[in-house]
Amino acid sequence: MTVKRLRGLLLLPLVLLSGCHFALLDPSGDVARQQSDIMIVTTLITLLIVVPVLVAIGIIAWRYRASNKQAHYDAHWDHSPSLELLVWAAPLVIIIAVGAISWIGTHQVDPYRPLTRVAPNQPVAVDVKPLEVDVVSLRWKWLFFYPQYGIATVNQLAAPVDRPIQFKLTSDEMMDAFSVPELAGMIYTMPGMQTMLHAVINKPGQYQGFSANYSGEGFTDMRFTFEGMSQQDFDSWIAKARAGGGSLDLPAYEQLRQPERNAAARSFASFEPDLFTRILDRCIDASQTCMSPAMSADAHAGGAMQDMPGMHDDNTTPADAAKPAETQAAETH
């Protein structure tokens, strides 16, 4: 094989990838970009120790190969303070640097933390309210509520450019993972629990969203389109959803929640006002007891038990409380 053919084979993967867009390395949302910067910086810092070690392995293997009779070998060498300092100090400094960047960065892009900026050197305006989107993962499709506009959509999501988005997420039955790589990091959805995600999109366009957690045979089809658009286009999109969809009431939701693969994108002009809360509390059926009142009752019952005579943090019972202190101390020890 000639050198020219070998070079062509080595460059072939780069040619095949030349048309790809690496969303994780060049995202269109500020939160995702901050996460990408953290990943790139920590990787480069790690390479400061990885690359020299790999180079040193090659140099040592070549210099002290069996055929090199000129290499000096000291059979009595066992320690070098300068080498020991280098071996331990360099990784320690790198670990401290990576740890500091990771700690600061992950707190800055905490999904539960409201955004303070929509882009570098562009703080969130005081009069701008975040776009609220309630997300429900179904089998195997995504349901999005827009409580500020009174509409709901299936497998289609849209938001104005440079406007903060506040997601509240839950799941109908199975655990999933909401992921739009161009927008922000992945966040899980779980039945009976609510997670949150704050994000913003900075460039108009269509982006792919999907579930990043296996949830059954239809998992591969659990995809949706996320569109970043101007405020004017977003208003038109809302108006179109209001004009072309029906109502997402309880019977319609019962039908929607049935397992479905390759679900078509559609919209609802209105929905039950408390539907997301009922999904979260797992009481779609009127005969079911909602989780929030039940948990609240349990919490109050627990507090009442703590207030009963003899019910203390040290687990003493009323019978123990009636004993003399000396007897309790003796029994404890």
Give structural notes:
Mean pLDDT is 85; it is low at 310-333. The longest helix has 34 residues, at 30-63. Strand 3 and strand 4 (141-146) form a beta hairpin. This protein has helices at 3-16, 30-63, 81-108, 231-244, 250-256, 275-280, 291-307, 318-321, 325-332, and strands at 117-119, 122-123, 131-138, 141-146, 151-154, 156-160, 165-171, 176-180, 184-189, 195-199, 205-211, 223-229, 246-248, 266-271. Helix 2 (30-63) packs antiparallel against helix 3. The strands form 3 sheets. The protein has a 7-stranded mixed sheet with strand order 10-7-3-4-5-14-13. The chain is elongated. By secondary structure, the protein is an alpha+beta fold. 40% of the residues lie in helices and 22% in strands. It has 9 helices and 14 strands. This is Ubiquinol oxidase subunit 2. Belongs to the cytochrome c oxidase subunit 2 family. The chain crosses the membrane at residues 38-64, 85-105. Keywords: Cell membrane, Electron transport, Lipoprotein, Membrane, Oxidoreductase, Palmitate, Respiratory chain, Signal, Transmembrane, Transmembrane helix, Transport. It is found in: Cell membrane.
